[in-house]
Amino acid sequence: MVNRLPLLIGIVIAALLAWGYSTTVDSAFFGAALDGANQLFQPGPMIAFVIMIPIALVSGLMPGGGLPFLIVVLSFATELDPFIALPVVIGYMAANDLTEPIPSILLGIPGARSSQATILDGYPLARQGYAGYALGASYTSSLIGGIIGGLALLAVLPFARELLRLFGSPEFFLLSLLGIAAVGIVSAGAIVKGLLTACLGLLIGLIGFTNVASQTRATFGVDYLYDGVNIVPVVVGLFAIPEIADLVISNTPVAKERLSEMLKDANRDVSRGMREALHHKWLIARSSLIGVFIGAMPGLGPTPAHWLAYAQARQTEQGARETFGTGDIRGVIAPESSNNSTDGGVLMPTLLFAIPGSAPMAIILGFLFIVGIQPGPQMVDPDAHLNLTLSFVYVIVLANILVVPIVLRFSPLLTKVAAVPPLWLAPIVIGVVTLSAFQANLDIADLTVVLVFSALGMFMKAYAWPRPPILIAIVLAEPLEKFMSISIQARGISMVWQPAFIAIIIAVSIAVYFSLRVQRDAKRLQDQAAEAEARLAKGQQAE
């Protein structure tokens, strides 16, 4: 399946785009593209973008480091122009991903789970004195992969614009319901746990006053719950605090001696690594397409794409079976190409169908609803928010072009962040995210919500219960109820026999099946790599 995947992706994308562009690209589309660029390249968004870059570079080196910034911006979202808040967050995520290869290659420690495959060949290269060679190849691959991901998002928009014209309230009700269920099914490989947490999220999301029935639900006489549970303290408690607690419990900073050893040759051979990456242009293209396609699958995110790109390179590149895992530069190029291309992929279902492709995309979905933007047809409508959607494409490409030269030049300096003791970082991060949760509404009750969801989040993390389905269900609960009510009143039970309704069920079922297969394959590859690493460690100890 891995061998045929890039070819299948290319054929499907080419066929869909040929039809989409022939029917939907018009003067209004190009007008929205120009307006999106004009709105983005204003002083406000550009100043915010410049402030975001160093924060993204530093925080990407720390476990859970990406969450505090997202939560701070989320707490200010209602006060910011959408063309400042949303593009900056998208750019932050793209820039944040670019720091992941630094500790993976130089230290053998992934900056995030999606950089684990890079360690297999990147770290041996660093130990052999070729750290600069590996970093040069890594960031050139990431740059090209990020641009391909952004262009893939751009290419899909005309087709999506035509497709969404066929949808009405029943279809969007079904998409919301199946989106919650799909993410629950594929989350963490635990179907029952995922569905149960999704149901819990729906129960929480339906608390408060509802316009559909003109009544309050489950408020228990508490005025704070009249408007429902605020999303910002939920995100802080469910995601940020458990990650910080795990950071404190592990308390394993990198040894300074080991850091110095890996840094001494980090600036060497960077240009040679860049040229080597360009020499493997077809490997970059295949791996990037895998990243786009897997990123668009509900609930998967970058980790499976990373491993599958590594696996297809090992199976298709000449002599790779014998050299991968020992310091083969192609084992760095393939996973890093897919790493950044997933940014464009995960935005597709999030913006167009309100189905997040990953946990961070669930937070982006929350951003959209907070600023009053409904994902779906509005995101591809020239008279609504197509200009904002196109600005995301510009931001993904711009972030990669600006950040890659910075990380290539300052990788050794940035890596020193990984040596900071976690106990020094934890109080600062906890203080920042807690203040952000409070300032969103200036209500002391929000801190109670943070406390409750922190306990829930730590329990779920400890016992491997997936957390994204809760957040996604809370965000989608209101539109789900609204579309269900409209659909029942307009069509009744006959809505389930509509061709579009049936087609969505079939398409989502295929996507979930494929997602489960991809998740299983990625987990198998991950386990094999862990076993090989353990055997190597034992052999070194015996010597």
Give the helix/strand layout.
Elements: H1 5-24, H2 27-40, H3 43-59, H4 66-75, H5 82-97, H6 101-107, H7 116-127, H8 131-164, H9 169-186, H10 191-205, E1 208-210, E2 215-217, H11 231-250, H12 256-263, H13 270-279, H14 281-296, H15 302-316, H16 320-323, H17 330-353, H18 359-370, H19 386-415, H20 422-439, H21 445-462, H22 468-490, H23 499-542
Antiparallel strand pairs: 1-2
Helix pairs in contact: 1-8, 1-14, 2-19, 3-5, 4-5, 4-11, 4-20, 5-18, 5-19, 6-7, 6-8, 7-8, 7-17, 8-13, 8-14, 8-17, 8-19, 9-10, 9-22, 9-23, 10-22, 11-20, 11-21, 14-15, 14-17, 15-17, 15-23, 17-18, 18-22
Give an overview in words.
- The chain has 543 residues and is mostly helical.
- The chain has helices spanning 5-24, 27-40, 43-59, 66-75, 82-97, 101-107, 116-127, 131-164, 169-186, 191-205, 231-250, 256-263, 270-279, 281-296, 302-316, 320-323, 330-353, 359-370, 386-415, 422-439, 445-462, 468-490, 499-542; strands at 208-210, 215-217.
- Strands 1-2 form a two-stranded antiparallel sheet.
- Helix 11 crosses helix 21 (445-462).
- It is globular, with a radius of gyration of 23 Å.
- It starts with a helix and ends with a helix.
- The mean pLDDT is 76.
